[in-house]
UniProtKB/TrEMBL annotation:
It comes from the Bacteria. GO terms for biological process: lipid biosynthetic process. GO terms for molecular function: hydrolase activity. Residues 20-246 form the Thioesterase TesA-like domain. Keywords: Hydrolase. Belongs to the thioesterase family. The keyword Hydrolase applies. It comes from Streptomyces resistomycificus. It holds the Pfam family Thioesterase. Gene3D superfamilies: alpha/beta hydrolase. This is Thioesterase TesA-like domain-containing protein.
């Protein structure tokens, strides 16, 4: 696999199910290092690397969600076509939940099998006519939101040199969220597992349950103690939930 879009943080691809992970706004593929290393060794865990960060820093980040989804789906389709029989799932946190969801919708229109399950974390489902975020276009507003949600090394945000490197991706991602509009279509047929922190300031447990309306398949809700980045403190439990969901889907296929 020579794609610039995916990273592996384990020693091999494994022969088990594949999990494709989508980072949060401003995040990079390394957000999933610990999860990748906690999941069973035979899983093939791929983390998406959006343009504009880390080793893709010199590439312009996407400022619109639709072309980002199209680019990811195209790259992922090539990976899936190489091993058409391997079951796979998508995991997305925060902005990544939207990107994973829209990627699954786009893949469903193609010839390749869709994901067996989506793991959607730290975000409520999109609503008709509503944007993906509350219109955070200004840098000060974006940084205030990042501080409110936590999860990022706060000292990093106070370092002008580091901030200069991460701000373009943050600005682009929040701009893409602010202009995102959900388009009505057929619900997914894949199973959906929603994960959320019980003290998340961005999405309540009740709001997380709204994803139920976006699938005709099995739906499960997993609530963890903590805020928006609850998964940092519950990697083992999140890995167990992912393993259970992925293996259940594989067994039934």
């Amino acid at each position: 696999m020579n794609s610039t879009w995916f990273r592996r943080f384990t020693t091999g691809a494994g022969n088990g199910p594949r999990l494709v992970c989508f980072p949060h706004a401003g995040g990079s593929a390394t957000a999933y290092v610990q999860l990748a290393r906690t999941l069973p060794a035979d899983f093939d865990v791929l983390s998406v690397q959006y343009p504009g960060r880390q080793d893709r820093y010199r590439e312009a980040p996407f400022t619109d969600l639709a072309p980002l989804v199209e680019a990811v789906a195209e790259e992922l389709a090539d990976v899936l076509a190489a091993e058409p029989g391997r079951p796979y799932a998508l995991f997305g946190h925060s902005m990544g939940a939207l990107v994973a969801y829209e990627t699954a919708r786009l893949l469903a229109r193609g010839e390749l099998p869709g994901p067996q399950r989506l793991f959607l974390s730290g975000r409520g489902a999109p609503l008709p006519g509503a944007g993906g975020h509350d219109g955070l276009y200004e840098d000060d507003d974006v940084l205030a939101e990042v501080r409110r949600l936590g999860g990022t090394d706060q000292a990093m945000l106070d370092n002008p040199e580091v901030l200069e490197m991460v701000l373009p991706a943050l600005r682009a991602d929040y701009g893409a969220l602010a202009t995102y509009r959900w388009r009505e279509g057929e619900p997914l047929t894949a199973a959906v597992t929603v994960l959320v922190g019980d003290c998340d300031p961005m999405v309540s447990v009740q709001e997380a349950q709204t994803w139920r309306e976006h699938t005709s398949g099995e739906f499960a809700l997993k609530v963890f103690s903590g805020g928006h980045f609850y998964l940092v403190d519950h990697v083992g439990q999140v890995a167990a939930a992912v393993t259970e969901g992925l293996l259940a889907g594989s067994a039934s296929s």
